[in-house]
Amino acid sequence: MPQFLEPALQVLAGIGLLFGGGELFVQGSVALALIFGIPELVIGLTVVALGTCAPELFVSVSSVLKGSDALAVSNVVGSNIFNVMVVLGSSALVLPLRVESRLVRRDVPLLLAVSAAVWGMASAGRVTWQAGVALLIALVINSVWEIRTAREEPDGMEEAEPQINSETANGGWIKACIRLLIGILLLTVGSNQLVKGASDAASLLGVSETVIGLTIVSAGTSMPELFTSLVAALRGRTDLAIGNVVGSSLLNQLLVLSSCALISGGTGLQVDRLIIERDLPVMVLTTLACMPIFWTRGRISRLEGGILVGLYVFYVIDQVLPRTLPTWQDGFRLTMLCIVLPIVLVMIVLQALLYWRQLRRERITHSVD
């Protein structure tokens, strides 16, 4: 136990530094953007969004620079799974989430398409630098598209975007730069501590860095998204809670993964075979499962939120069973495949059918009138 104490403290300290550094990074960036006269809408769609994924970016880049490609990739994949299942599910448990903005309705299919594309890119066992360039180009196109869409339909976007505090810029550009630099410093130190602690913990526990990245590291780097969405749900800004999840998941793949692929150079970003066969499909399927949830009745109920959180618990159990109770693993997976997943799918399909039937009746009623 004393041997495990040091890496555990490093992981906790790294998560704390990442959280504080990300907050200062956002404050400093927003202040500088306001000083330079950048519109608040653009700040919300770019600078603030970048700040929420800063922990994932710094941790994954630090992992690649230290030769831990498995930790970098598993952090991205695990963060996306955590965002959809835990962040979205927990927010719905706090307050049923209404899906009203065109932004969320458009971004969910886009997130599904990007996730499927990343799965395809990684299927060969690595993400090449060419794939990284393609993802970055997609990020630029999507950012421009979002800004233009927001300007054309501002009324439907206001609730989906974070509020910008104009008083942030009152301290002047010097204080803004100091906040930004301190934030970057904390993010750098925190990411190094988290990567070192996670690697040491994996060695002591006898598990791969992939498993640590998919669970502890990804959950730690996703804490800013969790807190942001929970606070948004408590304040009744449910579109912001959903938009935060979808936007962060997009940036994890379009920015974080692409940056790691570019840094890896000609060899490419190596992807563990287990991630390709198990975790990337889980990431795509969780996004796919959200589409009928988003489109039915325009809300995510507490029941659906509870299902998402419960599925993540099962996912984590499946990660740790091979090391703790290996004889139970086959039985657990068989139960998930034959009982749990079919029940969840039937519930989603039934809800979608009932909703579409209700819409059809309403259209018939309107046509008769």
From TrEMBL:
UniProt xrefs under InterPro entries: K/Na/Ca-exchanger, NaCa_Exmemb, NCX_ion-bd_dom_sf
Source domain of life: Bacteria
GO CC terms of this entry: plasma membrane
GO MF term set: calcium channel activity; calcium, potassium:sodium antiporter activity
Membrane spanning residue stretches: 12-35, 42-65, 77-96, 303-322, 334-356
BP term (GO), one: intracellular calcium ion homeostasis
Keyword terms, alphabetized: Membrane, Transmembrane, Transmembrane helix
Source organism of this protein record: Prochlorococcus marinus (strain MIT 9303)
Compartments it resides in: Membrane
Gene: ecm27
Pfam families to which the protein is assigned, alphabetical: Na_Ca_ex
Descriptive protein name: Putative CaCA family sodium/calcium exchanger
Stretch forming the signal peptide: none
Residue ranges annotated for the Sodium/calcium exchanger membrane region domain, each copy included: 9-142, 179-317
Membrane topology: Multi-pass membrane protein
NCBIfam families the record matches: calcium/sodium antiporter
Keyword flag Ubl conjugation: no
